[in-house]
Design brief:
The protein has 341 residues and is an alpha/beta fold. It has twelve helices and twelve strands. Helix 10 crosses helix 11.
Length: 341
């Protein structure tokens, strides 16, 4: 069967090729009835746009790459959902890849997608990303780069992120208002910025409520997983450190800590109140259910794509793009049994 062309659709519907093209690309100067008529017809005949011809006209491939540090992860899955919500209403195709928190893999993925000539790369960097030549290459190729969640504040590009410092403050303040005065913090790795900000939010809350900062109450949980949370709680217990509250960098590390506390017959929340971070789906099903900072992943995904569309529009108009535009998304605390009777 010969490939159906825009000219064939125009002839069949008695419209100009320009009108057909505009209808397919969502131009607002095509009325709704005409657009519906065109879209209904192209669905009926199973028309597939010629991407190569489109690229020659517009210099766009209509493809986007999303690079995540983890793939089997509640939070990142909701981000994918948010991006797809907008992608599926557009004529873009989304590629999704996982770096597995490996800097070398991240560099290879960026290089591969640049070779595929994608229009943009959306990326949450790894814990070990400290060199940014591969990301500079994205900008040098005149592609749009959007960082989200795990980011580097000194690198100039649009960013979509949560107010992690405020969220860390909110979590710690909640424990203080519960009556906690000896609050542990199981902090994330020293990079990226998000774990730094959660730690700083913890310190801000202590300072506001005149609670002395104690370095011994800070335990590193680089991966933020259940095993680390368990061993961090065990370490604190064996060191004889006094505590009545815990702000954990992730829900998984909070779950691990709770497992250890339960093994020692430490009552939650009567003897120790616990707050996690991320509001994973399992957090409301654990025993006790976990108070957690909710991250609006779907909203973040939608904002990432909207930032990309805005940058694309500026480029087409020949205007300067927002070199370091920052979109902050607010978080909220979901209170459950681990910190509330």
């Amino acid at each position: 069967m010969d490939r159906i062309k825009i000219s064939d659709i125009a002839t069949a519907l008695g419209l100009s090729k320009t009108t057909i093209s505009k209808a397919l690309n969502g131009y607002k100067d095509v009325n709704a009835l005409t657009r519906k008529r065109v879209l209904d017809y192209v669905n009926e005949v199973q028309f597939i746009p010629n991407r190569q011809a489109s690229f020659l006209r517009t210099k766009e491939t209509k493809t986007i790459a999303l690079i995540l540090p983890q793939i089997n992860h509640d939070f990142f899955n909701t981000i994918i959902d948010g991006i797809l919500f907008n992608v599926q209403k557009s004529d873009y195709t989304l590629f999704v890849a996982c770096s597995n928190d490996s800097f070398e893999t991240e560099k290879k993925l960026v290089d591969q997608y640049l070779n595929l000539n994608v229009d943009a790369i959306f990326i949450s960097i790894t814990h070990d990303t400290k060199s940014f030549d591969h990301l500079e290459a994205v900008k040098e190729r005149n592609k749009i780069l959007v960082m989200f969640d795990k980011n580097e504040k000194t690198f100039q590009c649009p960013k979509v992120m949560f107010e992690d410092r405020k969220a860390g403050f909110l979590a710690t303040e909640h424990l203080i208002k519960r009556g906690c005065k000896q609050i542990l913090h199981f902090r994330g790795a020293y990079q990226p910025q998000i774990t730094i900000d959660r730690f700083l939010g913890y310190k801000d809350a202590l300072e506001k409520y005149h609670i002395p900062f104690d370095q011994k109450k800070i335990i590193l949980c680089e991966n933020g997983d259940e095993k680390e949370g368990y061993h961090a709680a065990k370490k604190v217990f064996e060191m004889g450190i006094q505590f009545d509250g815990l702000f954990a960098v992730t829900d998984l590390s909070a779950i691990g800590a709770i497992q250890f506390f339960k093994s020692q017959k430490i009552k939650i929340p009567d003897e120790v109140s616990v707050v996690g971070f991320g509001n994973w789906r399992l957090s409301k099903f654990t025993v006790p259910s976990i108070t957690s900072v909710d991250q609006a992943g779907i909203e973040m995904g939608k904002q990432i794509f909207d930032v990309f569309l805005n940058e694309t529009s500026l480029k087409k108009k020949g205007e300067d793009i927002n070199a370091n535009k920052i979109i902050n998304i607010k978080s909220k605390l979901i209170t459950r049994e681990s910190s509330s009777k």
